[in-house]
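Record type: ASSEMBLY
Status: queued
Input:
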Amino acid sequence: MTVAAESAADPELVDPGRGGGLREVVRRRYLLRLIVRRELRARYQGSLLGLGWSYVRPAAHFAVFFFVAGIFLRMSEQVEHFPIFMFSALVLVSFFNETLINTTHSVVGNAPLVRKVYLPRELFPVASLLVSCVHLLPGLAIVLTVALVWGWTFSFAAVGSALLGFALTATLGIGLGLICAALHVFYRDTEKVVDITTLFVTWSVPMIYPWTVVRDTAPGWALDLYLANPLVDAVLLFERAFWWPTTSGSAAFPPNLTRDALISLAGAVCLLVLGQLVFARLQRRFAEEL
Amino acid sequence: MTGTPPAVVVDSVTKRFTLRHARSIKDMTVRALRRETLRERFTALDEVSVGIGVGEAVALLGVNGSGKSTLLKIVSGVMPPDSGTVRVRGRIAGLIEVGAGLHPDLSGRENVFLNGAILGMDRAETLRKFDSIVGFAEIGRFLDQPVRFYSSGMFMRLAFSIAVHTDPDVFLIDEVLAVGDPLFRQKCIERLHEYRASGRTMVIVAHDAKLLRQLCTRGVFLEQGRVLWDGDIATATDLLVRKRQERRGTQPAHSRPAEAGR
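Status: finished
Output:
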């Protein structure tokens, strides 16, 4: 065809569905911001408490874990300032779980748009991540307030630990989230798997027990396996950031925590790249599957 | 068409859909035991080539399931073709289905910004056109109400108004003129005429032969995913009317598996 031959040479003619992936999302950040705002607005539409729910949920979690683990199982006697120990871990775990669950639903939840308008589809998982970040803020504010009351003082080590822990969790969350979001379009089993995963995540990190319990009761290889979980690194970092400075400092952290966390972060970045590749490949069939 | 640069080039595009009969492991096993097929391939578009020049107004016609909506979706970029290429020039806006980007829980005002951004407008552009969009949509004091309280006519008007205000270089319209009250419909058609007169490109899918004859100069008639006719609009619409009559004559309403494209 002559028209086709001509068009190949014309630089202004472009492929209408040219992906672009996460880079395209950055370029359309104005739209991203509006989508995040929409998610936040729509979620609390018609509810009396509104964004207040993002305080209630962690508070309820906190109460349950505090009474069961802290009081009945007597963790409070073993761990100094147990409430802040637990809560600093809880906000991070909730952040991860929420990110994973919401990103998984993000593409299916926006089916009308995905089906009818071309947009970089990565917008939806990324928007879910940002919504989770917004929900993380109240929790962090509470952790910090309580920590300050218990004598927390600023140090670069603490803030660095918190940032590293957050970066690790967020990267892991969006990397896995991209894969789950894409899979969920094809297999609705994904949400069940994700649901169960979040259960494991909640109990496999040192949140209502210190990691030393694992060290002292499990064989060496099990401890290595336990510590290989990047979320354990992230949670330990958060505890080192917010809880440890308020204690007498006698509690031990695994040796080389920072190094291990950095290695985990590198792994999480690899996962993110993989997630982007998987998503870009699968998104070509989103419109017909939905 | 010589002389005008191409706005849309569709080059031997093929699109197949897979119809999965079984999704769960249980269904798959049952079907496998009965020796039934698990999936079926269905060709929605078969080596379709169409070139549309800048400033042309083209109608895509065909009976249900002929692949016209699929073609429009491929041009808009929502679906990639299985083989062949599609290339477009400039900004495309699609009214692929009315109000896909309108969120029921947000107010009309918020939706103007959100939907504008979805269709590629930035904040400054939306602000500049805001009054014109609201004026055209005639939603008046409902502007700050959540869109789900809108009547279907208002909903449609808002969606259409936002889409025409994005000033796309290529405007894709699918079946939107079928709804809405007659007055607004007339206004939309006028707007499309103006739009055409300004030298931009339009691709329309509709079932209303009279309307298409009014708006378009060229018709592309699709049948079972192939181009049957590509030329003047009168022949294409006549073809449509004839095919419809044939269908009505032969069929005891048997439904083709064709609406997979939706």
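Annotation: Chain A is about 75% helix and 0% strand.
Annotation: Residues 45 and 210 of chain A are 39 Å apart (CA to CA).
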